[in-house]
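User: quick one, sequence for these tokens?
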């Protein structure tokens, strides 16, 4: 079951650095909504509420319901400015959703069956080369995350973007730029100082006492 995020905001008419500073002192976040052929709208929203939502990975790649002065719109988070040293959101950008137009979003990659991966059981180390992927799709098809099954991955092998099993209606943006952009997203390699042959040999050695069993 997918998460549901509902945000409440108010229109703000005062702009500029001074106004934004006053909003932050009042525990509010200055933000903007734009897109879908409409005029940009300056808004403000509760700092604590937004900060709480941002702790959830799904928030970054999800269609959000934004209520502004009683009117609800569907939006996605496009940009976020955080304070460099304090747990404070300085500004947020939200983009309106046009249900008929494809959007591009970065979606998290969830790697599954790592503990049972062939290469891992042989002594290899799993390396995540990407943690998310940029996809293009209609809003209704936007996945919360994409699973990558590494169960069959052997030592010395990688899984590339083109090998990801995608949900219906979802495309990977990088692949539209040609084969050179078909990058590896996860691989299994040997620990430093351990030769692949050594691991293979150790995996083939029978457990102690097994040879005498007749």
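Assistant:
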């Amino acid at each position: 079951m997918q998460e549901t995020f509902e945000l409440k905001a108010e229109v703000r008419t005062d702009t500029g650095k001074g106004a934004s500073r006053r909003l932050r002192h009042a525990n509010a976040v200055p933000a903007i909504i734009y897109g879908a052929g409409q005029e940009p709208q300056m808004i403000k929203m509760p700092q604590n509420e937004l900060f709480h939502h941002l702790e959830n990975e799904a928030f970054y790649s999800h269609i959000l319901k934004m209520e502004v002065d009683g009117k609800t719109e569907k939006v996605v988070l496009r940009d976020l400015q955080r304070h460099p040293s304090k747990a404070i959101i300085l500004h947020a950008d939200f983009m309106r959703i046009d249900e008929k137009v494809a959007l591009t979003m970065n979606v998290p990659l969830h790697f599954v069956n790592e503990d049972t991966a062939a290469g891992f059981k042989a002594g290899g180390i799993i390396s995540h080369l990407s943690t998310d992927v940029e996809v293009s799709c209609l809003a209704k098809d936007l996945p919360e995350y994409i699973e990558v099954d590494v169960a069959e991955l052997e030592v010395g092998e990688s899984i590339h973007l083109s090998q990801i099993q995608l949900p219906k209606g979802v495309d990977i943006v990088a692949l539209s730029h040609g084969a050179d952009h078909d990058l590896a997203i996860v691989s299994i390699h040997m620990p430093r100082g351990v030769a692949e042959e050594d691991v293979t040999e150790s995996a083939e050695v029978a457990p102690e006492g097994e040879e005498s069993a007749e």
